[in-house]
Amino acid sequence: MSEPGAAVPVPGDYKSDVKPVWCPGCGDFGVLNAMAKAMARMGLRPEEIAVVSGIGCSSRIPAYTACYGLHGVHGRALPTATGLKIARPDLTVIVTGGDGDGYSIGGNHFLHACRRNVDLTYIVMDNRVYGMTKGQPSPTTETHWSSKLAPQGTGLSEFHPMAIALASGANFIARGFTGDPNGLADLIVQGVRTPGFSFIEVLSPCITFRPEQKEWKKLVRPAMLAATDDTAQAARQIFTDDGMNLGVLFAGARPAYQPPIGSGRRSTQELEARFAL
Q: Which of 118, 133, 136, 117 is nearest to 55 (CA)?
């Protein structure tokens, strides 16, 4: 936290001098702004925060912040962040990624990060397309979305991240929209402050490859129902949702997983002795 008497932090304190290279109009600009607003509201110093990502347009975010950052390999942001948080529980660890990185090659890690319930906040920018590799369908692409790379659509059912997160044990589940960075900042603050694994799905339009997503700003709305800690009620809300309701869906009370630091340390000689024949 900021020291007593220190200047009140502002969002600009958390941004680096590196200029984002996203396409004009990309929703990920809104996520970067929302993250900076959230960090300022929490009064955290940049060196108290680590931002971890994988591969993709959205995963560039660590370079655009003034915090500790790691731009890792494809789909492996969550296990990397898990190890970091367990080793350094004093750090606020935020993980960023997209629907391809998080739900395709990283899908198995997503399930188990929810299950382990380590105190992380995972922000996934979902544009329902692979933007960096020029417009292929992603796990969340609608079944019948037609493109040059998938004429007439894929014919495959969409991945349902919020349902998977709930079933796998995430302690906080919410949905935000990049067109509302203040509202998204509120969700990030709540996610960080909720112990355990927090998952925030962010509708982040890719107007380059999916220009029809400009209409999302007319379709999103605050959720009519309040957040719940009842998994059955949350499940009913998820499966009657059209994907455009914003806000907190589920806020649980499961304790975060954090093993004692240093309790399992052994010398090399002790480890060798255990395996001696």
A: 133
Please indicate, yes or no, if residue 8 is contained in any of the structural domains: no
Report the predicted TM-score, pTM, of the whole model to 2 decimal places: 0.91
Those residues with Cβ within 8 angstroms of residue 247's Cβ, 6 or more apart along the chain or in another chain? 174, 175, 187, 222, 223, 227
Asked if residue 15 is part of any domain, the answer here is no
The answer to whether residue 10 is domain-embedded is no
Question: Which CATH number characterizes residue 29's domain?
Answer: 3.40.50.970
Total of domains in the chain? 1
Q: Which residues span the domain enclosing 29?
A: 20-274
What is the pLDDT tens value at each position of the chain, 277 positions in all? 656 666 889 999 999 999 999 999 999 999 999 999 999 999 999 999 999 999 999 999 999 999 999 998 888 999 999 999 999 999 999 999 999 999 998 889 999 999 999 999 999 999 999 888 888 889 999 999 888 888 888 888 899 999 999 999 999 999 999 999 999 999 999 999 999 999 999 999 999 999 999 999 999 999 988 899 999 999 999 999 999 999 999 999 999 999 887 656 678 888 888 888 7
Amino acid 93 reads V
